[in-house]
Automatic annotation (TrEMBL):
Belongs to the aldehyde dehydrogenase family. This is Aldehyde dehydrogenase domain-containing protein. GO terms for cellular component: mitochondrion. The lineage of its organism: Eukaryota, Viridiplantae, Streptophyta, Embryophyta, Tracheophyta. InterPro entries: Ald_DH/histidinol_DH, Ald_DH_C, Ald_DH_N, Aldehyde_DH_dom, ALDH7A1-like. Transmembrane segments: none annotated. The keyword NADP does not apply.
Length: 555
């Protein structure tokens, strides 16, 4: 996400110049530089001052009979208590979803004023996130639960703010734009509408505690649905605070339910409440289980073993090396779009690319969280994976492959240096090695390989065998090379050209997988309409009847 920094600096400068007009417009909601919605102070959440996270159901914030204690990923202290609902406490959530009909809270024929209300909520929330005190609050809260550099955390907040700006005013009702087609006779017309599902569920991961759940949640609301939101308990405090902000901005308190629970309990809720659609972002294993349990009523943005191909034209080595470093190791590699494997043309091997990547990786430090805790993979697991890769003939360690030292990160999390392992292409494509090489390690870890001109078909074969098709990058300005690779690959979000990357998706283009009818997108009008609405056709046939009409013969 570092790629957006300069653009957002310009954005904030422009916002600052029009600050007074914003304040005048929004003086009915609250003054600038206020955190009146917040129930915690980001900097003070600690073992000595633990925060609490509650549930929201049927318009009321509630606790539960048990608490899940979250350990600080930097020092292991118990610093957040999450009120997790157990299976015996699910009934209020089941009842809440059951109150929402299949035709939703609103649709083009019902309560259309809600489209305008949600446009106003987006406007006020976008303004709030643009205030330095509020954006700083969320950036630091993100850092506390999903440690990443302040720059990375702040950009997550700014992308979220820009998304909300994109759906201010009339933009929400524009999502429900319909179309009409003339019929066969006077008085007949067919109209196509975007229709809500009604009761729905959003399940969001830990790695982007604000951006992913907020963008999907608002998309669900915009289209007329009633969502229940479940965020990974390790980071759920961020969305709890964001929901409180949305309520201050005018979102009705009973529009969204917010549940904290373990996976088994959430699965039981989904099976009992039977939401009409569930959006899941997370691991492929859980995604497939949900697809089975919910009879396919799902949209998935699951894990991605994401690839990058460096074409034969070598240019701007410093820049390409920096992008490779960002793609593989920013947020400690904990992005579903992170660079998992790098195919470099032999021309790049003859350049200084690998030396520069090694130098850039060495700059990353725990002190500024440019490298940090890995929340879902242990140190032992990552280092064991490295050892297995190094047993493949011709493999070698390029850099990393060691645990971080002198830290207090608890053992339930991972902590390794940015790591890259070279594996020969001829070995990667062998059946006995391919599953190991393409196993996704959700941490600062990538595989690097090399190919010659006549080996491009082997590279394309390797891509064809992959199961997840989220992001990809083809780094080349050779148009014929680009056409060849793009035409023989699938990934839903593919960057092409010398400045191509795999990570850093902003709010202004589609982000999501391809090649799977269950694939979900995020952020754009097209993504919102695809994920959070279905097509309904209404055919008007009002006459008049033809003169002299008579009952025809039976057919």
């Amino acid at each position: 996400m570092m790629y957006r920094l300069s653009a957002y600096r310009q954005l904030k400068n422009r916002a600052s110049s029009s600050h007074l007009s914003w304040i005048t417009l929004f003086n009915s909601t609250r003054s600038n530089h206020t955190l009146s919605f917040a129930t915690v102070k980001a900097e003070e959440v600690s073992g000595s001052q633990p925060a609490e996270v509650h549930n929201l159901v049927q318009g009321k914030w509630t606790k539960s009979s048990s608490w899940n204690t979250i350990l600080d990923p930097l020092n292991g202290q118990p610093f957040i208590k999450v009120a997790e609902v157990n299976e015996s406490e699910l009934q209020p959530f089941v009842e809440s979803l059951s109150k929402c009909p299949k035709h939703g809270l609103h649709n083009p024929f019902k309560a259309p004023e809600r489209y305008l209300m949600l446009g106003d909520v987006s406007t006020k929330a976008a303004h709030a996130l643009g205030l330095p005190e509020v954006s700083d609050f969320f950036a630091k809260l993100i850092q506390r639960v999903s440690p990443k550099s302040y720059q990375q955390a702040l950009i997550e907040v700014l992308v979220t703010q820009k998304f909300l700006e994109n759906f201010c005013g009339d933009q929400v009702r524009f999502l429900a734009r319909s179309f009409a087609v003339p019929g066969n006779h006077l008085g007949q017309q067919s109209h196509g509408f975007r229709w809500p599902y009604g009761p729905v569920a959003v399940i969001a991961p830990f790695n982007f505690p604000l951006e992913i759940p907020l963008l999907q949640l608002m998309g669900a609301l915009y289209m007329g649905n009633k969502p229940v939101l479940k965020v990974d308990s390790k980071v759920c405090i961020v969305m709890e605070q964001m929901l409180r902000l949305l309520h201050e901005c005018g979102l009705p308190v009973d529009d969204v339910d917010f549940i904290n629970s373990d996976g088994k309990t959430m699965n039981k809720l989904l099976v009992e409440a039977k939401p009409r659609m569930t959006l899941f972002t997370g691991s492929s294993r859980v995604a497939e289980k949900l697809a089975d349990d919910l009879s396919g009523r799902v949209k998935l943005e699951d894990a991605g073993f994401d690839w990058k191909i460096l074409g034969p034209d070598v240019n701007e080595v410093d820049y390409v090396a920096w992008v490779c470093d960002q793609d593989a190791y920013a947020c400690s590699g904990q992005k579903c779009s992170a660079e998992s494997i790098l195919f470099m043309h032999e021309n790049w091997s003859e350049s200084s690319l690998l030396d520069k990547m090694t130098e850039l990786a060495a700059r990353r430090k725990l002190d500024d969280l440019t490298i940090g805790p890995v929340l879902t993979v242990t140190t032992e697991t990552m280092l064991n994976h490295a050892k297995k890769l190094l047993q493949i003939p011709g493999s070698r360690l390029l850099f990393g492959g060691e645990a971080l030292q002198n830290h207090s990160i608890p053992k339930i999390y991972g902590a390794i240096k940015p790591t890259a392992i070279f594996v020969p292409l001829e070995e990667i494509i062998k059946d006995e090695h391919y599953p190991l090489v393409t196993k996704e390690i959700f941490g600062p870890f990538q595989v690097v390989t090399e190919y010659k001109d006549n080996q491009l078909p082997l590279v394309l074969d390797a891509l064809e065998k992959m199961h997840a098709h989220l992001t990809a990058a083809v780094v080349s300005n050779d148009i014929l090379f680009l056409q060849k690779v793009i035409g023989n690959s699938v990934n839903g979000t593919t960057y092409a050209g010398l400045r191509a990357r795999t990570t850093g998706a902003p709010q202004n283009h589609w982000f999501g997988p391809a090649g799977d009818p269950r694939g979900a997108g995020i952020g754009t009008p097209e993504a919102i309409k695809l994920v959070w609405s279905c097509h309904r056709e209404i055919i008007y046939d009002v006459g008049p009847m033809p003169l002299g009409w008579k009952v025809p013969a039976s057919t």
